[in-house]
Design a protein that fits this description.
Blueprint (H helix, E strand, L loop, with lengths): L7 H6 L5 H12 L8 E7 L6 H14 L7 E6 L6 H13 L8 H12 L4 E6 L12 H7 L9 E7 L2 H7 L7 E2 L5 H12 L9 H13 L4 H12 L5 H8 L8 H4 L3 H8 L3 H9 L11 H11 L11 H14 L4 E2 L7 E2 L2 H10 L16 E2 L13 H4 L6 E2 L13 H8 L7 E3 L20 E3 L20 E3 L21 E3 L23 E3 L19 E6 L7 H5 L9 E7 L10 H10 L7 E5 L8 H4 L22 E5 L16 E5 L25 E5 L6 E2 L1 H4 L6 E2 L5 E5 L6 E2 L7 E2 L5 E5 L16 E5 L23 E5 L6 E2 L1 H4 L14 E5 L6 E2 L15 E5 L6 E4 L6 E5 L6 E4 L18 E5 L16 E5 L16 E5 L7 H5 L7 E5 L4 H7 L11 E5 L26 E5 L3 H13 L6 E5 L19 E5 L9 H5 L7 E5 L19 E5 L18 E5 L20 E5 L18 E5 L19 E5 L27
Parallel strand pairs: 1-4, 1-5, 2-3, 3-4, 8-9, 9-10, 10-11, 11-12, 12-13, 14-15, 15-16, 16-17, 17-18, 18-19, 19-20, 20-23, 21-24, 22-25, 23-26, 26-27, 27-28, 28-30, 29-31, 30-32, 32-34, 33-35, 34-36, 36-37, 37-38, 38-39, 39-40, 40-41, 41-42, 42-43, 43-44, 44-45, 45-46, 46-47, 47-48, 48-49
Antiparallel strand pairs: 6-7
Pfam family, one: LRR_14
Protein name: NB-ARC domain-containing protein
Keywords: Plant defense, Repeat
C-alpha cells in the first residue's frame, strides 16, 4: 500500500504487560483530589526502551476514544534533544489546529495557545523530555512553556515522559511525585515475547523452544523494545532450534551496553537484516532524532542512493524499496509516529544504533572526515557550518540534504551556493528546498551522478539548460516554485526521469516531447498551454504513470481527437484523476467540453475523480454509463461504471445537468457551483440516485442554485429501503433557492449514520427533518427562515438523542426559544439529553428564552459549555444546566437577568444549579446587574467591558483568575474575594477608584496565591487615595505577589500604589506602567523595589526623561527593561550603563529618543532590540562594539545607515535581525567579523540584494528571510 504500510504484529503487541501501569496513569488523570487538580503534571520516568511512549500513547488513545471524551482538547508534542519553547508551542498548536503557526514570537505563540486552551479541560503529552535545559536548578524554560497551560479548566492534565528524574522533579505538580515505569516483570516479558516471536502466541511451541526463549528474554532485562526486536528476529526462523541456539549463545550478549550504548538485542537484529536493508536502515541516521518521515520520501531517497537490489525492470525498484520499508517496520526498526499515522520515526535507542553502524559516512560536525559521504543539517540554524573550510573539501559527498524548516523562507547567496556546489560533483541527492534562491547554479549541470533533486519552495524563475545533461536523474521535485513558468525544452532528454512533481507551480505548459520520457511513473500535474491542444497526444506513451494525474488547461483543447490519442484508458496504474478546465466567464459552446470529456475514457478502477470548470451539460457515458441507467442495480453484483471510484469532486460546472450517481464504491462526494446538476427530471429518470450510494460517508453540496427541494427527487425512486445508509457528514452551503428538506416517503428510513450536519447560508429554507438518530454535531448559520413556525408540531432539535454540539447563528426569524424549539412530540422525554456545547449568536429578534414545563425540566443534563452572543433583544437567560462548566455572554444589550430556574424536582429552587460552573465571561451587557450567588465554584471570571451596572458577583472562594473591567462602582470586592486563597491573577479596570480603594483596604496577606495584579486607576482620583493613613489597614502584602501592572492613572496615584506595596515589602519582580500620565519625569522620591527583575514602561506619552534615582532601587536586580510608545522620551538615564544585572533591553517606537555618548548601554547586555526610533540615525552612533556579551540584536528603521562596517557590531552576536534600512547597500563589511552568527534575517532593505555579489563568497554563511530579495 502506498503511503502507509501495514503491520498486524505492531498493532497487537503494544498492550502486553502494561495494563496495570495504564490503570494507574488513568487513575491519576481521573482523580479530582489533591491541590494540583487545577493543572496536574504527571511525569513518567524510566529507562530508554522501557515503554514510556507506548504507555503514554495507550493512555492518550483511551482518553480520546472514551464516550463522552474525557478532555475538551488533546495534543501530543514530541520534544527534541535541544529544548526550544517556541518549537514546542508550535508543535502543540499544529496538533490542535491542523495548521502550522505563522508567527515566531514567544509572546504571540503563548497568546494563541491560551486562546485554544482557555476554559477548556485539556490533555497534553510532552514526549521524551530529557533536555539539560530543564532541571531543578534552572526551570525558566519550563515556566515559559507552562504559562499558557494555566488558563485551562481544572481537571486539565499534562503527561511528561522522560528518562531524567531531575526533569521529573522540575515539572511535577506535586513535589517529589512522579510515576516510575519499571522494566517488565518476568511473566510480562515472556507474554510479550510470545506475542511477537511465536505465530500462535506460543500455544504449539516445543518445550525446547520455550526454554531457549526464556533464556533469551532474560538477557533482554525487561525492556519491551529489546524483547520485541529480538522476538521478531526469532519469528523469522520459525521453529529452527539451531538458529534459536545461535542467537542465545551469540557473543554480542557479552558486550557491555555502557561501552557502546547499544542494546545487544538491537545489535543481533541488525546483523541479521539482509545487507541491502542494512544500508537503508543506516541511511535514516542521516536525520536527527525524532525526525518524522513518510514512506514515499524514504523510498525515493533509497532508490536514488542506489541501495535497492537490481530488478529486471527499473520500474519495480520503488516496489522493492517499499518492501524494505515494510520489513523494517515489521521488525520494529521503524515505528509509527504518535502524532500522525502516515509518518514514521526511529526510537532513540534504534537511532543510536543507526548512527553507530553508519559512523564515518555521515558528516560529524565535531570532527569532519573528508571521506564522509552524506551531509544533513538543520535548515535555518546551521548554515554557517557549511562554510567551514573542511566542508568545502568534501569532494566525495554523495548526499546534500538539509532538514527542511517549514516555518521560514531562507536565503543562501547565489555565489556562495555556486562555489560550494561546484566541489560536490559526485552528488546523488541534492535538496535546496525552502531556500529563496532565484538561480540554480550551473555547477549542478556537472553532477553526472545526480539522481534526486528537490527545488521545492525556491524562487527560481527558470532551470538552466545544463541540467538537461543529468541523464541519471530519476526524481525531480519542483513543488510550489511560484515564479517558475516553464521547464527547459531539453528536459525531455532526461530519459531516466521517473518522478516529475510540479504541484503548486504555475507552469504555463509542458515542454514539447514530454511523451518520450517513457520512464515517468509519477507526473502529478500535466499542463496544456494555449494553442497546445496536440500536446495531449504526449500522454499516449506514458503508460507507467502511477498515483495522481491532474490535467490542467483542458479549456485549450480544440480537437477531442487529441484527447483520444492520449489513451488514458490504458493508464491502469492511475488511482486519481483531476480534470481542470480552468475558469472562463462565458463559453461559446458547451458541446466541445462534452466531447473532450467523452474522449478521456479512463480505466474503470479509478479511485478518485475531480472535475473542475467543466462547461458541459452532461457527464460522459464512461463516467455514468448512461445507456444502462434503466437497469442499473446497486445489489453489489453489478460491475459496470466505476466499481472502484471512492472520491468524486465536481466544482465550477454551471451547465452540468441531471447527473446520475452510478458509483457503488463512492465514499466522498463534493458538488460545488453546479447550478443544474440536480435536474427536475431526476426523480422520473429511473436512474441511480444520491440516496442509493450505500457507502457514501461524506457529502458536500455548495452553490447548487436550482435546487429547491430535498425530497423524493433528491433521494431517488429506486428500490432501496434506506437512503444514505452510511452517510456520516453532510454539508449544505449557499443554497439560495432551497426551501424544503423532507424525509423520504414510502416508509423508507434516511440518514441512520449521520453524525455531522452543517447548513449554511440557505436563506429560503424553512424546514428540515429532525430524525437523525446518530447526529452529534449540528451547525445552522444564516438561514433566516429556519426554526420558524413552519417547523412547529413535528420532531424538534430537543429530541435528537445523540446531539452533543449545537451551533445556531444568524437566524433572523427566531424570536423565542420555547416549546416549538424544544419539541412537543415526545411527551415527558428529556430535551437535549446528551448536548455538551450550545452556541447561540447573531439572533437580532430573539427576545425570550423559556424552559419547558412538566417533567421535561430535566433537559440539558449534559451541557458543559454555553456561548450566547449578539442577541441584542434577549432579556433573560434561564439557568437550568446541572453540569454547565463554561458560560460566555457578550453583546446582549437588553439582558438584565440570569434567571435561576427550578431544580431537578418540581417546585424546588435548586441550590445545586450553578455549582458546576467554573468559568464565566460576560462583556457588553450594560443592563445586567448581578451574577447569581449560586455560582460559588467559579475558577475563571472575566466581567466587564460594557457591564457598567454589574454590581454583584458571588463569593469567589475558588477563583484563580478574576478580571473586573468597567463594572458598577458599587461592586463589593471584599464580599467577593475576602477568602479567595486560590486567586492568582487579579485585574481591576474602572472609571472610578472605588474598587482599587477597597482592594487596598483589605488584608491582602490572605490572598496567598496572588501573583499578578493589574490596577487601572482614574487619573483624577489622587486626592481620594489616602488609605496609607488609615490605622485600621493591615500592612501585610500578598506573600507571593510578583507581577504588578498600573495603567491609565495619574502617575502620582500610580507611584502611591507602588510605594504602598514597596513599603509592605511585596516581592515584586515584574512591574509595568502603561498609559500613565507621568509628566516629564518620574517623581524623584519614587524608588523601585529591590526585588524588581523586569520593568516595562509603555504608552507614557508625556514622559521626556528617566532619572537615575528612579532605577537606583533595583540597580542590582533589574534584568529586563522595555520602553515603548513614549512619544516625548528624549534620552535614557545616564546610569543605565552601570546596571550590571541588565541583560535584555527593548526600545520601541520612541520617535524622539537618542542615546547620548555619555550614557551608553550596559556591557552585560545579551539581547538588544531597537525599533522605529528615528532620532537614532545611524547604527554606528550606538557604539555597539562595546557590548561584548551581546548575542541577539534586532534593529528596525535606521534610515540613514547605508553600510555596516567591520567593527560596528560585536563578534559575540549569534542572531541578527535587520528591518527597514532603506539606504543599506551592503553587509559585506560586517558579516566576515561575526564569527558566531547563526541567524541573519533581513527584511525591507531594498538595496541590499541589487548590487553585484562578487565578494559575497568570502563572507560567513547566513540565512536570510526577506520579502525584498528581487
Amino acid at each position: 500500500a502506498r503511503g502507509k504500510p501495514t503491520s498486524s504484529v505492531n498493532d497487537t503487541i503494544a498492550i502486553c504487560g502494561r495494563s496495570e501501569d495504564k490503570k494507574n496513569i488513568m487513575k491519576l488523570l481521573e482523580s479530582r483530589d489533591g491541590a494540583d487538580d487545577a493543572l496536574r503534571v504527571i511525569p513518567i520516568v524510566g529507562l530508554g526502551g522501557v515503554g514510556k511512549t507506548t504507555l503514554a500513547n495507550m493512555v492518550f488513545k483511551e482518553c480520546g476514544s472514551s464516550t463522552p471524551p474525557m478532555f475538551d482538547v488533546s495534543a501530543w508534542a514530541c520534544l527534541s534533544d535541544e529544548f526550544k519553547v517556541v518549537d514546542v508551542i508550535k508543535s502543540i498548536l499544529e496538533f490542535i489546529t491542523g495548521e502550522k503557526p505563522k508567527s515566531d514570537g514567544l509572546d504571540s505563540l503563548q497568546q494563541k495557545l491560551k486562546e485554544h486552551l482557555k476554559g477548556k479541560k485539556f490533555l497534553l503529552v510532552l514526549d521524551d523530555m530529557w533536555s539539560n535545559d530543564i532541571s531543578s536548578k534552572d526551570n525558566r524554560k519550563w515556566d515559559e512553556l507552562r504559562t499558557p497551560f494555566l488558563v485551562g479548566k481544572p481537571g486539565s492534565r499534562i503527561i511528561v515522559t522522560t528518562r531524567s528524574k531531575d526533569v521529573a522533579e522540575t515539572v511535577t505538580s506535586v513535589r517529589g511525585t512522579f510515576y516510575q515505569l519499571n522494566v517488565m516483570l518476568e511473566d510480562e516479558s515472556w507474554s510479550l515475547f510470545e506475542s511477537v516471536a511465536l505465530p500462535d502466541g506460543g500455544e504449539s511451541a516445543r518445550p525446547i523452544l520455550e526454554k531457549i526463549g526464556r533464556e533469551i528474554v532474560d538477557k533482554c532485562q525487561g525492556l519491551p523494545l529489546a524483547i520485541k526486536m529480538i522476538g521478531r528476529l526469532l519469528r523469522s526462523y520459525g521453529g529452527d532450534v539451531e538458529e534459536w541456539k545461535c542467537i542465545l549463545n551469540n557473543e554480542v550478549w557479552r558486550i557491555k551496553v555502557a561501552d557502546c550504548k547499544i542494546l545487544p538485542s538491537l545489535w543481533l537484529s541488525y546483523y541479521h537484516l539482509p545487507e541491502d536493508i542494512q544500508q537503508c536502515f543506516a541511511y535514516i541516521s542521516l536525520f536527527p532524532k525524532d525526525y518524522k518521515f513518510k514512506m514515499e520520501e524514504m523510498v525515493m531517497l533509497w532508490v536514488a542512493e542506489g541501495f535497492i537490489k537490481r530488478t529486471p525492470t527499473i520500474e519495480q525498484q520503488e516496489d522493492v524499496a517499499r518492501g524494505y520499508f515494510d520489513h523494517l517496520l515489521l521488525n520494529f526498526f521503524i515505528q509509527e509516529s504518535s502524532t500522525d499515522p502516515l509518518q514514521f520515526v526511529l526510537h532513540d535507542l534504534v537511532h543510536d544504533l543507526a548512527e553507530y553502524v553508519s559512523r564515518g559516512l555521515c558528516v560529524n560536525w565535531g570532527d569532519i572526515n573528508l571521506e564522509s559521504r552524506r551531509l544533513c543539517y538543520n535548515q535555518g540554524e546551521d548554515e554557517m557550518l557549511l562554510y567551514n573550510s573542511k566542508v568545502q573539501k568534501l569532494t566525495r559527498l554523495r548526499t546534500f540534504l538539509p532538514k527542511v524548516n517549514e516555518y521560514g523562507d531562507f536565503y543562501l547567496d547565489d555565489k556562495i551556493l555556486s562555489d560550494m556546489l561546484s566541489n560536490f560533483k559526485l552528488l546523488r541527492v541534492l535538496s535546496l528546498q525552502g531556500y529563496s534562491i532565484s538561480v540554480l547554479p550551473d555547477s549542478v549541470g556537472d553532477m553526472k551522478l545526480l539522481r534526486y533533486m528537490n527545488m521545492s519552495g525556491t524562487h527560481i524563475k527558470c532551470l538552466p539548460q545544463r541540467i538537461c545533461r543529468l541523464y541519471n536523474l530519476q526524481f525531480l521535485i519542483l513543488r510550489e516554485c511560484y515564479r517558475l513558468k516553464r521547464l527547459p525544452g531539453n528536459i525531455v532528454d532526461l530519459m531516466n526521469l521517473r518522478y516529475l512533481n510540479v504541484d503548486g507551480t504555475p507552469l504555463e505548459e509542458m515542454p514539447d516531447g514530454i511523451g518520450t520520457m517513457k520512464s515517468l511513473r509519477m507526473l502529478p500535474n500535466f499542463v496544456l498551454g494555449k494553442g497546445k491542444s496536440k500536446h495531449m497526444k504526449e500522454l499516449k506513451d506514458l503508460t507507467s504513470l502511477h498515483g495522481k494525474l491532474q490535467i490542467s488547461g483542458l479549456e485549450n483543447i480544440t480537437d477531442p481527437e487529441h484527447v483520444v490519442a492520449a489513451q488514458l484508458g490504458k493508464k491502469e496504474y492511475l488511482e486519481e484523476l483531476v480534470l481542470d478546465w480552468g475558469w472562463i466567464e462565458e463559453r461559446e459552446t458547451t458541446t466541445l467540453d462534452e466531447r473532450v470529456l467523452d474522449a478521456i475514457q479512463t480505466h474503470e478502477n479509478l479511485k478518485k475523480l475531480t472535475i473542475s470548470g467543466y462547461g458541459g451539460k452532461r457527464l460522459s457515458t464512461w463516467i455514468v454509463d448512461m445507456e444502462e441507467l434503466e437497469t442499473w442495480s446497486f445489489s453489489g453484483r453489478d460491475e459496470r461504471g466505476f466499481p472502484s471510484l471512492k472520491e468524486l469532486r465536481i466544482t465550477g460546472c454551471p451547465m452540468l445537468m441531471n447527473m446520475p450517481f452510478c458509483f457503488p464504491s463512492l465514499t466522498v462526494l463534493e458538488i460545488e457551483g453546479c447550478g443544474n446538476v440536480f435536474g427536475s427530471n431526476m426523480c422520473c429518470s429511473g436512474g441511480p440516485s444520491l440516496g442509493s450510494l450505500r457507502l457514501l460517508r461524506d457529502l458536500r453540496i455548495v452553490e447548487v442554485e436550482c435546487l429547491e427541494f430535498l425530497d423524493e427527487g433528491f433521494y431517488g425512486n429506486d428500490d432501496c429501503d434506506v437512503v444514505f445508509p452510511s452517510l456520516e457528514k453532510f454539508e449544505i452551503c449557499y443554497m439560495y433557492e432551497l426551501k424544503i428538506w423532507s424525509l423520504p416517503g414510502r416508509n423508507r428510513q434516511g440518514f441512520p449514520s449521520l453524525k455531522e450536519l452543517t447548513i449554511q447560508n440557505c436563506p429560503e429554507l424553512m424546514t428540515f427533518p429532525l430524525c437523525f438518530p446518530s447526529l452529534t454535531d449540528l451547525e445552522i448559520e444564516r438561514c433566516d427562515k429556519l426554526l420558524g413556525p413552519e417547523m412547529c408540531g413535528g420532531p424538534s432539535l430537543g429530541n435528537l438523542p445523540t446531539l452533543e454540539d449545537l451551533t445556531i447563528k444568524g437566524l433572523d426569524c427566531l424570536e423565542s426559544l420555547n416549546e416549538g424549539f424544544y419539541g412537543d412530540d415526545c411527551g415527558d422525554a428529556r430535551i437535549f439529553p446528551v448536548l455538551e456545547k450550545l452556541e447561540i449568536s447573531e439572533m437580532p429578534r430573539l427576545k425570550t428564552w423559556c424552559f419547558p414545563g412538566g417533567d421535561r425540566r430535566g433537559g440539558f443534563a449534559s451541557l458543559k459549555e454555553l456561548q450566547i452572543s449578539k442577541c441584542s433583544l434577549l432579556t433573560k437567560i434561564p439557568f437550568c444546566f446541572p453540569c454547565l462548566t463554561t458560560l460566555g455572554i457578550s453583546e446582549c444589550y437588553d439582558l438584565n437577568e440570569i434567571e435561576m430556574s427550578g431544580g431537578p424536582e418540581k417546585g424546588s429552587v435548586s441550590t445545586a444549579y450553578g455549582h458546576s460552573l467554573l468559568s464565566i465571561e460576560i462583556t457588553k451587557c450594560p443592563k445586567l446587574e448581578k451574577i447569581p450567588k449560586s455560582f460559588v465554584n467559579l475558577v475563571d471570571v472575566d466581567c466587564g467591558g460594557g457591564c457598567n451596572k454589574l454590581a454583584s458577583v458571588p463569593r469567589l472562594q475558588h477563583v484563580r483568575n478574576l478580571s473586573l473591567r468597567y463594572v458598577s462602582e458599587s461592586m463589593s470586592l471584599k464580599a467577593a474575594i475576602h477568602d479567595s486563597t486560590y486567586l492568582e491573577e487579579l485585574s481591576i479596570e474602572s472609571d472610578c477608584s472605588n474598587l482599587t480603594l477597597e482592594l487596598l483596604s483589605l488584608d491582602l496577606n490572605r490572598l496567598t496565591s496572588l501573583k499578578h495584579l493589574h490596577l487601572m486607576i482614574p487619573g483624577d482620583d489622587y486626592e481620594r487615595m489616602g488609605w496609607e493613613n488609615d490605622d485600621q489597614v493591615s500592612k501585610r502584602p500578598p506573600p507571593n505577589l510578583s507581577h504588578l501592572q498600573i495603567s491609565f492613572c495619574n502617575f502620582q496615584t500610580g507611584t502611591k500604589v507602588l510605594t504602598y506595596f514597596s513599603n509592605l515589602n511585596a516581592p515584586i519582580t515584574s512591574l509595568e506602567f502603561s498609559s500613565c500620565q507621568v509628566g516629564e519625569s518620574f517623581p524623584p522620591d519614587v524608588e523601585l523595589p529591590s526585588t524588581l527583575q523586569s520593568l516595562k514602561i509603555t504608552w507614557c506619552f508625556d514622559l521626556t526623561t528617566i532619572s537615575d534615582q528612579f532605577l537606583s532601587g533595583c540597580s542590582n536586580s533589574l534584568q529586563e527593561l522595555t520602553i515603548e510608545y513614549c512619544d516625548d522620551l528624549v534620552c535614557l538615564p545616564r546610569s543605565l550603563s552601570t546596571l550590571q544585572s541588565l541583560r535584555i533591553l527593548s526600545l520601541l517606537e520612541c520617535p524622539k529618543l537618542v542615546v547620548l555618548k555619555e550614557c551608553g548601554f550596559p556591557a552585560a547586555l545579551t539581547h538588544l532590540t531597537i525599533k522605529k526610533c528615528p532620532k537614532m540615525k545611524a547604527v554606528s552612533n550606538l557604539r555597539l562594539i562595546e557590548l561584548t556579551s551581546l548575542t541577539h540584536l534586532e534593529l528596525e528603521k535606521f534610515k540613514e545607515t547605508s553600510r555596516l562596517e567591520a567593527g560596528c557590531l560585536p563578534v559575540s552576536i549569534e542572531e541578527l535581525k535587520i528591518r527597514n534600512f532603506p539606504r543599506l547597500e551592503t553587509l559585506s563589511g560586517v558579516l566576515p567579523t561575526l564569527k558566531n552568527l547563526r541567524l541573519l534575517e533581513v527584511d525591507d532593505c531594498p538595496l541590499v540584494n541589487q548590487k553585484p555579489r562578487s565578494k559575497m563568497h568570502k563572507l560567513i554563511p547566513h540565512q536570510f528571510k526577506s520579502s525584498t530579495t528581487d
